[in-house]
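2024-03-11 09:14:02 DEBUG pipeline.ingest accepted 1 chain
2024-03-11 09:14:02 DEBUG pipeline.ingest length=392
2024-03-11 09:14:03 DEBUG pipeline.predict start
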Amino acid sequence: MREVYLDYSATTPVKEEVVREMIPYYTEVYGNPSSLYAPGLRAKEGLTNARQQVADLIGANPAEVFFTSCGTEADNWVLEGIADQLKDKGNHIITTKIEHHAIIHTCMYLQKYHGMEITYLDVDEEGFVSPEDLENAITDKTILISIMMVNNEIGTLEPIKELAAVAKKHGVLFHTDAVQAAGNVPIDVKDLGVDFLSMSAHKIYGPKGIGALYKRKGIMMPSFIHGGAQENRKRAGTENTAGIVGFGKAAELARVNLDSHIAHSRELRQYLWDQIQAKIDLVRLNGPKDFDKRHPANLNVSFNYIEGESILLLLDAAGISVSTGSACSSGSLDISHVLAAIQVPMEIINGTVRFTVGDFTTKEDIDYTVDALAKVVDTLRKLSPVTGKEGW
C-alpha cells in the first residue's frame, strides 16, 4: 500500500543531511559543552556553529538566540518571564483568539495564578488580526503583545511588521510564535521589529525536542530554568548537543533552499486544491483565499455533511496521513478554537481536514490522495443522516 504523508505542519521527517550532522555528537564529539578540556570544547564548537546557523535563518545575531527544548518552552519563557520582569509596570497581555495552545493556555495560567489581565483579539473571517484593533486594546498597563506569525491550522500569515510597529509606538514588547513560519516564509527579525520570536526544529526537517527563542539584544528577562550557566546563564541544564547541531543544519538547509521549498509547496498545494474542487463538491476553503497570504503548504478544507475524524481514519486506512487541526489538540473532543474564531458554520466545523504538503510530496501523492478522498467522502455522505439538505 502506498504511504502518503500530508501533515508536515504537525512534524517533518528529519533530512538525511541533518542526521549525518548529528551522529558524531552521539559517538565521537560526546563531551559536555561546559567542560574546558578538548572533548568539551569540540562539543562547544558545534553549539556555536549551530547558533550562527539558526540566527542566519531569521536575520539575528547569534548572541540573541537561546536554545530551548521546543517552541512551547520558548513561548512559555517569554510570557511568564515578561510577566515577572515587568510586574511593577503592568499586568496586561494582549494576544489573539487563534493562537497555539502554548500561548493561550499559558495566558490562562497567568490570569488564574498571577492576576494577569488578558485580552484575546478577534480576527476576521480569514484569520487576520487588525492593527487598529490591536492599538485600541493597548492600555497603560500593557506589558506584552504575543501574536503568531503563521496560524498552525488555517495558515494565515499575519501582518507582523505592522503589528510590531503598533507595539513599538506604545512602548510595548512584542513576541511572535514563528514555529510554523520559520523555514517556510522569509524572516528578518530586524525588519519585522519583533522583540521575541519562537522556533522549533522539528517543523523544518530537524529533530524533535529542540527549539529556540530569539530575544532582542538589550531586553532583560529572567531565567526560565535555574541551575548552571548554560545559554548565557538564561537556561540551565546540559545542552542537547546533537539536537542543537541538527537544528543548526536544518536551519542552514531551510535558508539555502527557502525559495525552492516555497515554490514546490505552493505548486503542490494549488494542485491539491484544484483536484479537490474538480472531484468533490460541497467543500469550503478555510483561511485566506489569497494563497500568497497563507503558509505555502497549508490547505484547510471543510467537507459538508461528514466528520473530519472519519475522513482522517479512512484515509489512514489507505496509507494517507492528514490532520483535523493541530496535532497538539488531536486528543480533544472540543471544536477547533481557530475555526470557531473565523466563524466557520457550526454545522460543518467538524468536517474539517488540514492538509500540508512538504519537500517529499509528489504530484503522484496528490493524485492518489484525492482519488482516495473522493471515495471516502462519497461513502461517508451516503451514510450521513443529513445528506440531501441544502449546502452553504
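2024-03-11 09:14:41 DEBUG pipeline.report The chain has a mean pLDDT of 95.
2024-03-11 09:14:41 DEBUG pipeline.predict end
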